[in-house]
Amino acid sequence: MSEQSQPGALGPIAQIHVSVTDLDRSVAFYRDVLGLEHLFTVPGQPMAFFDAFGVRLYLGVPEDAAFHSRPLLYYRVDDVEKTYETVVDRGAEPIHPPHLVHRELHNGVVAELWMAFVADPDGIPIGFMTQRTP
Fold first, then answer.
1. The whole model's pTM is what?
2. What would the mean pLDDT of 81-92 be, rounded to a whole number?
3. Residue 32 to residue 15: CA distance in whole angstroms
4. Which DSSP letter does residue 20 get?
């Protein structure tokens, strides 16, 4: 029996909510700048959904302050420099260019963690990260 099938057990993250102030502007950013697949926008409601590689990303204008979110999402990318350059060229606000975050030696092999950050239209940071062997 898998952990998911046991009563009360959690499964993988299915959806993440990101609070936005202007849904149309945010849909354009997440679709056209980040390149995420826009699944649907709920007619008459300030809610839009994207496929973030198997996790559903929910952009919404919260009606209640208790549901306001400010998540920091990190996307795994193959080439952090190219991804950063691409999304900045498409209009993302740069926060921090690609930089080395951590280097470690594991079993005789050097591994590096690199990150870069841009902001969405509401100023929420979005991280890009890659692990590589120099």
1. 0.88
2. 97
3. 21
4. -
Tell me, letter by letter, the H, E, C secondary structure of 53-81.
CCEEEEEECCCCHHHCCCCCEEEECCCHH
Beta bridge partners of 96: 117
**Beta carbons of 50 and 36 less than 8 angstroms apart:** yes
Please give the Cα distance from 129 to 132 (Å, whole number): 10
The mean pLDDT value for 60-64 works out to: 93
Residue in 94, 14, 12 with CA at minimum distance from that of residue 55:
14
Q: In the prediction, which pLDDT does 1 show?
A: 46
Q: Give how far the C-alpha of residue 124 lies from the chain's centroid of Cα atoms, to the nearest Å.
A: 10
- Dump strand ranges (E) for the chain: 15-19, 37-41, 47-52, 55-60, 73-76, 93-106, 109-119, 125-132
Place of tokens 């826009």: 38
Q: Quick count: other Cβ atoms within 10 Å of Cβ 42? A: 12
Using pLDDT thresholds of 50, 70 and 90, give the confidence band for residue 105: very high
> Domains in the chain, start-ordered, CATH in brackets?
1-71 (3.10.180.10), 72-134 (3.10.180.10)
